[in-house]
Amino acid sequence: MVESMSTDQAARLNREAWDSFRRQRDEGLVGGRRDVVERLVEGGSFLSVHHRELVGDVHGKRLLDLGCGDGGELISWARLGAQVVGVDNSPRQLTVARRAAEAVGIGAEQCRLVLADLLAVPEGLLRGDFDVAFSSGVLSWIGDLDRWFAAVSRALKPHGVFVLGAVHPLALYYRERERGAQDWHSYFDQGPFTEQLDATHRWNPAGDAVTTVQWMHTLGHVITSVAQAGFRVSRLLELPDEAEVYGVTGGPGEFLLRAIKV
Ligand SMILES: C[S@@+](CC[C@H](N)C(=O)[O-])C[C@H]1O[C@@H](n2cnc3c(N)ncnc32)[C@H](O)[C@@H]1O
Hints:
The strands form two sheets. A seven-stranded mixed beta sheet has the order 3-2-1-4-5-9-8, with helices on both faces. The protein is α/β, with parallel strands linked by helices. The N and C termini lie far apart (36 Å). The protein has one domain (7-29, 52-261): 3-Layer(aba) Sandwich (Rossmann fold), CATH 3.40.50.150. It has helices at residues 7-26, 36-41, 49-55, 72-79, 91-103, 145-155, 169-178, 219-228, and strands spanning 62-66, 83-88, 111-115, 130-136, 156-167, 193-197, 210-214, 231-240, 252-261. It is globular, with a radius of gyration of 18 Å. 32% of the residues lie in helices and 25% in strands. Helix 6 (145-155) crosses helix 8 (219-228). Bound molecules: S-adenosylmethionine. Residues 11, 14, 18, 67-69, 72-73, 88-90, 93, 117-118, 136-138, 141-142 line the site of S-adenosylmethionine.
């Protein structure tokens, strides 16, 4: 654990890491978690029934996807009729998202992509004119939840919906403990955890100089921080780890939180 890591330093290292993962995926070095462009062109969606249920009907609504990555969810929302803005700080991830949008005929007027750190979202996106804020798979990469959720609140209209999906912190804790990580020894240690990924890591077969910085926010920390940013939490779904991705039989895999701006 590195106590002195600033969120700016972390964002820079993580941006380099995601650019590297993306390049290695584009070059076919990393087996496809998914091929976004191909799957979207075939008519596939990256949204689960739980995403759809918690977010509700998005037709004609303005939706902000925080940490949209390669655009799978973002473009799936656009296909359901939303006006979408995706924010990510990895240029390579956004390049793929742009390619995916173009491949399915979604133009820049319906899908805007913004290169920015989630802790420094441009003021123009924080004018309270989004109906929905959505974020999937990003939580562990962000070190200052109070600051992040305060910005999410500013982006939303009154009564706007915020849906946040992430790996369940217990699943993260058990997975890291299982693989013998030295510093994930307590559920209550929130990090930051830095890791240098060598060529034995499945996302870095090229052996790029990759360092990741992640946090393990407890569920209590997440919910408290969302509430303190001016939201009323209306649902917390804890989903079982059915495929045992995190290796805990009968344990949680992911969670999805739905909150309303009050
Ligand atoms: C696991 S991916 C999730 C992407 C997408 N939401 C999904 O569910 O597939 C995490 C994404 O968060 C982005 N990210 C990490 N830290 C960030 C930061 N500080 N600011 C903006 N984006 C960040 C990465 O570039 C990456 O695209």
